[in-house]
Amino acid sequence: MAEPGPPRGAFVVAVNPRAGRGRAVEDAHRAAELLRTGGDEAVVLSAGDLGALVALVRDRLRAQALTTRALVVVGGDGMVQAGLGVLVELAGQGIDIPLGVVPCGTGNDLARHLGVPLRDPVAAAGRILRRLDDPGARRLDVGRARFADGRTSCFATALCAGFDAVVNERANRWLHLTGSTKYLLAVLAEIVRLRTVRYRLEIEDAGGRRRTERRDGVLLNIANTSSVGGGLRIVPGAREDDGLLELFTVAPLGRARFLFLFPRLFSGRHVALASVRIERVRSVAVDAPDVTAYADGERLGPLPVRVDVLPSAVRVLA
């Protein structure tokens, strides 16, 4: 019997060890086992903190760019965000490595949008293998947030700069809870402090027209995909590959009307309400006092921020 040939390449599997209440490392190895069935290697990388993990991944991909089949991230949307940042950086250097997602986090909103199986790492890895050599594999637009101090962050799902950012801040402190239940409880805890924010917006719309306006609201999201917070479908019609973002705002509401609105976010039925406004845009600059921006469930920093889109920035295996 002939000896098997050398591996064709390698998958780099990056895992957030804290995701899924510690289940992510096990899920990463289960996914890696399946990824090896095609004759490729699968190297699992982990680290004690996200910064160290990003450095490991970046160094590995740079050193073995020609033989890397894909970067597979295992965790939640924050782990996806970290992986995207590396891939966008490498794409700027002419290195095009696709992204695979094995969801094992709190929100998993990119996975929801792309139809990736949520609680089955083997099925998610199987989806990656089936899409690996597909010439029609989709490309993912990436949101880019640029802050006044020069920092830049990429995101996959949405940037939040309203009540939902406050909710994220609280939810991230509750390490014993996961999924949409954690987000819902954080909403209920913060509803008593619901406040109207006066935003200053600089908008470039889908047609390239620019305008500046003041807008009051309780929610503001700049979305690349359809949901946030573990399944809140804020922009049900969002597309990840249209080269545009969706500016989602909700006008000032009292607590009772907000509680009427909130459950409709899970089904997308809120879009018919008069208080809801959704606009397709190329870029938005946002400023407001005492507001911290979040994206993909991760804290980015205080406003002001300018957000635009990197069209078709990353090939995604989903």
TrEMBL record:
Q: Where is the DAGKc domain?
A: 5-149
Organism encoding this protein: Kocuria aegyptia
Task: Indicate the family of this protein.
Answer: Belongs to the diacylglycerol/lipid kinase family.
* Record protein name field: Diacylglycerol kinase
Q: Name one Pfam family in it.
A: YegS_C
Which keywords has UniProt assigned to this entry? ATP-binding, Kinase, Lipid biosynthesis, Lipid metabolism, Nucleotide-binding, Phospholipid biosynthesis, Phospholipid metabolism, Transferase
Q: Could you say which cofactors this protein requires? A: Mg(2+)
Q: Which PROSITE patterns match?
A: DAGK (PS50146)
